[in-house]
Amino acid sequence: MENDFSEYRLRTICYLCKKEFAVVGGTAAYDRVKRNKKGMHCCEDCKQKIELEARLQFGRRVLTGKD
Questions:
Q1: What are phi and psi for residue 41, nearest 5 degrees?
Q2: 3-state secondary structure of 65
Q3: CB-CB contact of 46 with 18 (8 Å)
Q4: Any idea what the Cα angle at residue 61 is, between residues 56 and 66, rounded to 5°?
Q5: Which DSSP letter does residue 16 get?
Q6: Most buried pick, 14, 33, 45, 60, via CB within 10 A?
């Protein structure tokens, strides 16, 4: 029997944009939501915005030489 994770989904709410989103079984996000249903989770769009902002801040620090 094959493991088909596409049938396993959990729904949660993004703590940044407050929209409901689904996480698919077999992913790291699914494991985090499953372990901590009331935790702070973010959707893929917000996750990408956070990562972009972190990269920009790091680049600014490197260019200006400030910590």
A1: -120, 150
A2: coil
A3: no
A4: 155
A5: T
A6: 33
